[in-house]
Amino acid sequence: MSWRTFFRISEILLLLLAGALLVGAVEKLISFDLLPSLVDTLWDTSVVLDDGSRVGSLVAAFTGYRAHPSLLVLLVLAVYWAGVVGMLRRVSR
């Protein structure tokens, strides 16, 4: 494995983990009533992958996946990934 590939994989894993930490922080702030959830549950994908199961909790821990996401969590995650993609495009030029 080349160093370039190693650092690309590390970069992706760290960005996914940062997104998951951001989702966890926003959910904590919502639970403390410091932020509004806007809409409590947008959809339910627990039939496909429940974030309480072993595989689901692993995916949730590394990516921020939620089976029952609130609107605010989804918006924050979308803004995060839009910012990441924008910065990566600017750096690659």
How many domains, in number, for the residues?
1
Oligomeric organization of the protein chains: single chain
SSE ordering: HHH
- Bin the helical content: 55-70%
How would you sum up the major sheet?
A: none
Gyration radius, rounded: 15 Å
Average pLDDT, all residues = 94
Number of strands: 0
The share of residues in extended strands comes to under 5%
The computed structural class is: mainly alpha
- Return residue spans where pLDDT drops below 50 for at least 5 consecutive residues: none
Distance between the termini: 25 Å
Number of helices: 3
Instruction: Based on Cα principal axes, name the global outline.
Output: globular
SSE blueprint and pairings:
Elements: H1 3-31, H2 54-63, H3 71-92
Helix pairs in contact: 1-2, 1-3
Can you walk through the features of this model?
The structure is a single chain. The chain has 3 helices and no strands. It is mostly helical and 93 residues long. The chain has one domain (3-92). The model has no long low-confidence stretch (mean pLDDT 94).
